[in-house]
Task: inverse folding
C-alpha cells in the first residue's frame, strides 16, 4: 500500500510517499480501508517533533480517517466487515492515517451513517471531537445558552458554531469581515469582526445584553480581556489556542474570581471514550444536515505536502481533506 511517512523529525522535506506492507491488526484493532483523511495543522507539529509526546520512527502521518472496515481483531464485536466508520486521535503513539489502509483501535472509531460522505466525515473528525469536548463536555452547553465562538470559520470554529446553533443556543461568532462573517451568519450565528478595536463592546452588543454562558477561545492572548467583559457568573471560558502569553490584570483576575468564571485550557486530544461518544453524536448531526463541514479543497494522497501546507495557511475557511 501507499503511505506518507517520515523517518526523522523535520519540515515538509522529510515527508515521503512510500510503498509499505499493509498493516496487520491486533486483537483489539480494526483494519480500515481509508477513503478520506482530514488534514490538521497538528499533523505538522507531530512531524516536527514539536509536541511532548514523541513518536516511534518511521511514522505514518495523519490523525483523522474515514473509510470501510476490511478486517477486525478477535476481541472486536462493535464493527463488522464493510462497516462505514470514521475516527480521530491516531498518529500520536501509533501509526497515522495518510495511507490507503490503517490498523486502528476499535474504541477510537464511530459508525458513519450512509448519508454522510467519507469526505465530510474526515473533515469533521478531529475538529468535531474538539468542538464537542470544549462546548459540551467542558462548557456544559445546554439548550438556550448564549455562547461566543472565536475563529468561527476555522476548522474547530465552524463546526462548533453549527453544533451550538443546532442546540438552540444564541451564538456569536468572530471572523474577518466579508465572506467569513457572511459564512457564520449563514450558519445562524451573529457575526463580529475580530479585528475591531472595541471587541468587548461589539460582543456585548451581539449578545443583546446577555452574558455568555460559554466562550470557546482560539486566540486567548488577544481576546481574553474581551471575553471577561461578556461572561457572567459561573460562565466557562474554554481556551483551545493562544498565540502568546496570556496575561490578566489584577482587576480582571479579581472580577473573574468574584464571578466564579471557570477558565479552562483545553486540549484537542482527550480519551478515546470521549472521542467515540462525541463522534457518534456528531454523526447524527451530520446525517441530519444540522452540521455540514466546509471543505476548502481536496487533494490526492500523492500531494499530501501541498494539502498540509494549505491547512496551515492563514485564514483558511473550513477544512482541507485528502481523498484516497
Result:
Amino acid at each position: 500500500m501507499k503511505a506518507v511517512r517520515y523517518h526523522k523529525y523535520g519540515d515538509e522535506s522529510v515527508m515521503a510517499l512510500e510503498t509499505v506492507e499493509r498493516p496487520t491488526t491486533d486483537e483489539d484493532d480494526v483494519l480500515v480501508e481509508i477513503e478520506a483523511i482530514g488534514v490538521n495543522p497538528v499533523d505538522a507539529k507531530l512531524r516536527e517533533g514539536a509536541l511532548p509526546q514523541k513518536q516511534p520512527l518511521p511514522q505514518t502521518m495523519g490523525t483523522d480517517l474515514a473509510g470501510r472496515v476490511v478486517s477486525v481483531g478477535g476481541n472486536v464485536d462493535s464493527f463488522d466487515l464493510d462497516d462505514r466508520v470514521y475516527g480521530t486521535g491516531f498518529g500520536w503513539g501509533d501509526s497515522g492515517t495518510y495511507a490507503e489502509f490503517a490498523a486502528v483501535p476499535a474504541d477510537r472509531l464511530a459508525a458513519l451513517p450512509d448519508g454522510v460522505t467519507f469526505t465530510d466525515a474526515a473533515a469533521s473528525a478531529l475538529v468535531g471531537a474538539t468542538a464537542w469536548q470544549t462546548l459540551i463536555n467542558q462548557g456544559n452547553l445546554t439548550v438556550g445558552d448564549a455562547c461566543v465562538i472565536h475563529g468561527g470559520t476555522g476548522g474547530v470554529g465552524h463546526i462548533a458554531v453549527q453544533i451550538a446553533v443546532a442546540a438552540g443556543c444564541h451564538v456569536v461568532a468572530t471572523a474577518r469581515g466579508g465572506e467569513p462573517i457572511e459564512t457564520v451568519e449563514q450558519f445562524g450565528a451573529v457575526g463580529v469582526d475580530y479585528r475591531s478595536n472595541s471587541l468587548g463592546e461589539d460582543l456585548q452588543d451581539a449578545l443583546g445584553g446577555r452574558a455568555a454562558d460559554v466562550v470557546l477561545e482560539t486566540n486567548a492572548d488577544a481576546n481574553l480581556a474581551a471575553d471577561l467583559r461578556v461572561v457572567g457568573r459561573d460562565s466557562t471560558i474554554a481556551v483551545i489556542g493562544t498565540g502568546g502569553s496570556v496575561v490578566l490584570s489584577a482587576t480582571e483576575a479579581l472580577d473573574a474570581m468574584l464571578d466564579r468564571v471557570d477558565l479552562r485550557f483545553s486540549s484537542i486530544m482527550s480519551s478515546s471514550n470521549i472521542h467515540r461518544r462525541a463522534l457518534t453524536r456528531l454523526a447524527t448531526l451530520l446525517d441530519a444536515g444540522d452540521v455540514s463541514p466546509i471543505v476548502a479543497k481536496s487533494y490526492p494522497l500523492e500531494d499530501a505536502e501541498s494539502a498540509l501546507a494549505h491547512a496551515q495557511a492563514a485564514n483558511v475557511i473550513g477544512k482541507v481533506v485528502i481523498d484516497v
Notes: The CA atoms of residues 36 and 323 lie 4 Å apart. The longest strand covers residues 29-39.
